Amino acid sequence: VYYEMQSSVCRAGLHAGVIDNDGGWLDVTRQGRKDFFIRSNKNGVESVGKYKSANSFTVSRVAVKAITCETTVAQLCPYEMLARHCPRLYCPKNCIEENPHISR
């Protein structure tokens, strides 16, 4: 589903089912101009139809992985994998206090 650039990002995420009303992470990708936007009602959010060309975007779910202060890229996303982008990560608080000698 394409959303017009003036649309609320969070409501677009709710409409698309990418997040729920508790919130969450999402990615936004600009998609360029679209000729029109179709009205629909999904997940409790009604999108407005628009029959005028405008810039657009899409939303997508983000895979977020919680790690420890000691997790390395070699463990998480080794170079043998074909993907160039590793998962989005969430670091815990207070990592500066844990094993400060490990960083290279």
From TrEMBL:
<dbReference type="InterPro" id="IPR051957">
    <property type="entry name" value="CRISP-LCCL_domain"/>
</dbReference>
<feature type="domain" description="LCCL">
    <location>
        <begin position="1"/>
        <end position="57"/>
    </location>
</feature>
<protein>
    <submittedName>
        <fullName>Cysteine-rich secretory protein LCCL domain containing 1a</fullName>
    </submittedName>
</protein>
<dbReference type="Pfam" id="PF03815">
    <property type="entry name" value="LCCL"/>
</dbReference>
<dbReference type="InterPro" id="IPR036609">
    <property type="entry name" value="LCCL_sf"/>
</dbReference>
<dbReference type="InterPro" id="IPR004043">
    <property type="entry name" value="LCCL"/>
</dbReference>
